[in-house]
Amino acid sequence: MGSVEVDISTREKYSAERAKRLATTNFAKRLEVSKDPSVRDLLQDPWADYDALAKEAGFDPKDLVLVDNAGGWGGTCYWNRYPGLQCDVEGYCYLPLLEESGFVPQNRYSHGEEIRRNAEHIAAKFGLQGMFCTSLVAANWNESGGRWDVTLRRQLGPAHEELNAAFTISTQFLITATGPLSSMSIPALPGLDDFRQEKKVFHAARWDYDYTGGSPTAPHMPKLRDKVVGIVGTAATAVQAVPELAKWAKHLYVFQRTPTYVGPHEDSRTTPALWNTVTKGGAPGWQDERIENLNLFFTDDAEVAPDMNLVQDERSRYPSLSAVWGSRRAACLGPEMAADHTEWMLQREAPHAARLRKFINQTVKDPATAEKLTPWYPGWCKRPAFNNAYLQAFNLPNVTLVDTDGQGVQTYTRHGVVVGAGESAREYALDCLVLATGFELSGSGSNPLASSGASCRGRRGAGPGR
Q: What ranges does the record give for the region Disordered, renumbered to this chain (predicted)?
């Protein structure tokens, strides 16, 4: 890629950006959505068919029952159905059990609905049993019975109050897969209640198609034609949702705390010829081999060469991301080697960062907007994105980037949101606000159920940390 080094000017910009981010006063304040009654309605599941599930209130115990507070299969793509949703990791690796289930993705990078269909396909093919709209309350080891007593609570909405109750089951094996990113992150800023009385607010993980129009399969949003829309966030979700909102909103304000590295997206349809190449003609173990190959490049393994890369996309060619995912290269590093290793990583990353910054500046027509969308930090500090419409959206007359200089939105009012403070404060009047603010990182290594909020007691009543 040529010789590119991290020069003094770039280092100074990196340092300034770090200082700005650390000086943010309101970013750490987050609402505990599941515990705060004033915003708990934002958790309402818009996809669950409560009536159908109520008819199946009982369950037939099988060897395996999967419990989920969602109303169906799909995991993160059950909840996330925002317009533009698409996996940014190659679907041939990301979608599980393709070889075993016979599922063929339509695109190289699967859209959200296809990811959910794949989960449903797996459940149907293997006869998996699901207990939906059900949350884990507690898990206690029963010494005398040699089993787990698991307390669950089912919630089928106000129309089925008679079925909304806690109950306890006994199981020989308890597998926890609650994950660390399951609770919506919402900025705890003043005035949210007032704003919600007048205007529409929803989180991207609970997209309100009744308000916007359209559906997850056809995300046309004609109801936004006369609406001024704001979206808070410029990370992975917003990068995909902004271009879709820009097509329909009367005007779209994008509120940015810090920019994201955005590169070109190398998507394509899955033709028979491409599928034959990917699966190596249907050779057994093709997906495991491809996943392992991708992992070697994600972790910047010292034993692989560029021409060994089976995926060959922007993400797999970005070695410095191993700073997040880990690498065998760093297995023997001690504290005294940290500075030299960081310098080595910066130099390895420099050509990739420079190329993406150049791409941003060539794509966005207005120089001032392009500069605000240009990241000045190492690529491993914030997950890079790949999209062929996000940067282009800022060339449209109905899209405005509101850069908050690292501080984020300050307050809500009855009419909109406020950016800045003192004499520089400005209110942006909105009809609708989309919170593309991600999920809270929750959980603790000492408690396998921490992210679910459930208690866990093992042998002799031992809890986390004992």
A: 445-466
